């Protein structure tokens, strides 16, 4: 069974390990570097991270969020320029599911907890165009493409979960 909850500082090491294992420099699709200190700073700064765990407590996945003014990373700022979202929109991502838990409903469980945590608020995110697996998974959640932008020689697709977006 998949359990979801908000992460605490004691989860930072496991979250960082999952994200770092799937970073672009290790063959994954995640942008950026995610050491434990970055995860701790996000949690301490009030930025919600939803995690999914197994019955045994192992980390199955993590979904990071941030308020629009929190993350100054260039890809995030480029996304917000392409699609700023509504006044109460927040940045969704990155999201990462452990390789051995993919296809088991972890993303759906994370997203359901996210919607319960931020009811009625618009989530906005970007996915690289060359990541069709993630794009397909998010479209299945009901998200819609609302914009595209080029960043660092790559095309990014902006998605929103606002019902009237796009």
The radius of gyration is: 15 Å
Strand order in space, largest sheet:
1-2-3-4-5-7-6
CATH first level: which class? Answer: Alpha Beta
What about the largest sheet? Answer: 7 strands, mixed
Principal-axes shape call: globular
Overall domain count: 1
Helix content: 25-40%
Describe this protein's structure.
It is a single chain. By secondary structure, the protein is of the alpha+beta class. The protein is built from five helices and seven strands; from the N terminus they run βααββαβαβαββ. The protein has helices spanning 12-21, 36-44, 74-82, 106-117, 132-140, and strands at residues 3-6, 49-53, 59-67, 90-97, 123-128, 144-151, 154-160. It has a seven-stranded mixed beta sheet, with helices on both faces. α4 links the parallel β4 and β5 (123-128). α1 packs across α2.
Brief account:
The chain is α+β, with helices and mostly antiparallel strands and 166 residues long. The chain has helices at 12-21, 36-44, 74-82, 106-117, 132-140, and strands at residues 3-6, 49-53, 59-67, 90-97, 123-128, 144-151, 154-160.
């Amino acid at each position: 069974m998949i359990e979801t909850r908000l992460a605490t500082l004691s989860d930072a090491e496991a979250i960082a390990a999952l994200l770092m294992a799937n970073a672009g420099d290790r063959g994954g699709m995640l942008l950026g570097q995610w050491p434990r200190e970055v995860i701790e700073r996000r949690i301490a700064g009030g930025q919600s991270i939803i995690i999914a765990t197994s019955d045994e407590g192992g980390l199955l996945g993590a979904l990071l969020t941030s308020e629009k003014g929190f993350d100054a990373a260039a890809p995030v700022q480029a996304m917000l320029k392409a699609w700023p979202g509504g006044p109460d929109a927040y940045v969704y991502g990155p999201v990462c599911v452990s390789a051995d838990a993919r296809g088991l409903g972890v993303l759906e469980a994370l997203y359901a907890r996210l919607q319960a945590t931020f009811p009625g608020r618009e989530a906005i995110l970007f996915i690289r165009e060359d990541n069709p697996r993630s794009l397909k998974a998010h479209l299945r959640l009901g998200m819609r493409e609302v914009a595209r932008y080029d960043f660092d020689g790559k095309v990014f697709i902006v998605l929103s979960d606002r019902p009237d977006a796009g």
